[in-house]
Each structure stands twice: as structure tokens, then as C-alpha cells.
Design goal:
Elements: H1 6-33, H2 37-42, H3 65-85, H4 87-108, H5 119-135, H6 139-152, H7 168-189
């Protein structure tokens, strides 16, 4: 089977990421119209047994149009890079991150807080792309990791508690999920 050309892969990647962003945009619209009832009811509430299911909905919900728009840029770039490399990896990484990072936030997140936003996935994609440069052991992944590290390296400081309304727990566990997934994938590929 012939390998797809870069522009064909780019178009597919663009469609995947654009579709998810449109889906999240529609959720944001409904959320806004309902005074953010979706985020409040679909976000992760730590250690609340009835909200364990929210680990799969929270990464697609936001708390304001600005929150959605700010996350959309990084989601498009970092998620797009993962899809560009391999769609199956993108799907598996997204599901793994929702489960692993979402569950971690549910277990250790601040009490009486609601966690939602695609930053959990953004940090997972960032962690994956950067860690893949190390674990994949190929020059292409290494140089991409260096480039993304230079462009997005400041994200590392957002895994620390700063402002009370920012889910640094989602950032931290999202990044850990991405690095862990890169390590698992790197071992399988060797």
C-alpha cells in the first residue's frame, strides 16, 4: 500500500481537528445559551461518585467563549500534529488521556471544584509530541519535539497551581498522560 503524500495527510488532519473544534464550538454555543449548565453538569467534580462519567465529557466543554477560543488554537496545532502523524494514535491518545488524566483529576483534584476544558487534551498532545522525540528514537520526531518544546515550552509552568479558577490538575495529568502514552508507544515500536 502506497504511503500517503504529506498534503493528503494534512487535509485529513485538518478535517479531523476542524470537526472536533466545530463539535466543541456547538457544545459551547449550547452551553452559553444554557448559562453553562453543560459544563457545570458535565465537568469533573473530584471524588463525586455520580460524576465519574464526566472524565469523558469534561475535555470537550468550556466555561466561556474565550476559554473555548483560547484552547482552540493550541488544540488545532498540537492535535493536528498528532493526527498528521497517525489518526489511530490520535484516537487512542485522546481516549487514553480522557481516561487516565480525567480519572487522576477526579481522584486528586481540589474539592468542591468543577474541572472542564480541552486543555487536558492539549497538554496530553504536547506531552506526547515532546516525549515522542525521546522515546521514538528517530530524527524527525526528535526535531519536531525540539520545535514544539521551543514554541510551547512555557506550558510546562501551567502545571503548577497559579490561579484558583484554572485546573492545573488537568494540565499536569494531561501532560503526564501524553508522556506515558509516548513511552508505551515507543516500547511497542521497538
Amino acid at each position: 500500500m502506497a504511503k500517503m503524500k504529506f498534503w493528503e495527510r494534512f487535509k485529513i488532519s485538518f478535517r479531523w481537528v476542524a470537526s472536533l473544534l466545530v463539535f466543541m464550538g456547538l457544545l459551547e454555543f449550547v452551553n452559553h445559551m444554557t448559562h453553562y449548565a453543560l459544563s457545570v453538569n458535565g465537568g469533573i467534580i473530584p471524588r463525586e461518585p455520580s460524576r465519574l462519567w464526566a472524565i469523558f465529557s469534561a475535555p470537550f466543554l468550556h466555561f466561556s467563549p474565550e476559554h473555548y477560543l483560547l484552547n482552540s488554537i493550541s488544540f488545532a496545532i498540537l492535535g493536528g500534529l498528532v493526527v498528521l502523524e497517525d489518526r489511530r494514535i490520535f484516537v487512542k491518545l485522546t481516549l487514553f488521556s480522557c481516561f487516565f488524566a480525567g480519572l487522576a483529576v477526579w481522584c486528586v483534584g481540589r474539592p468542591a471544584s468543577v474541572h472542564a476544558g480541552s486543555s487536558l487534551l492539549i497538554f496530553a498532545y504536547f506531552g506526547f509530541v515532546v516525549a515522542s522525540g525521546w522515546f521514538a528514537k528517530n530524527w524527525k520526531a526528535f526535531f519536531l519535539a525540539i520545535l514544539i518544546g521551543l514554541l510551547y515550552g512555557g506550558m510546562v509552568f501551567q502545571v503548577l497551581p497559579t490561579e484558583g479558577f484554572i485546573s492545573w490538575e488537568s494540565h499536569l495529568f494531561g501532560m503526564i498522560a501524553g508522556v506515558l502514552f509516548a513511552k508505551i508507544l515507543g516500547k511497542r515500536q521497538r
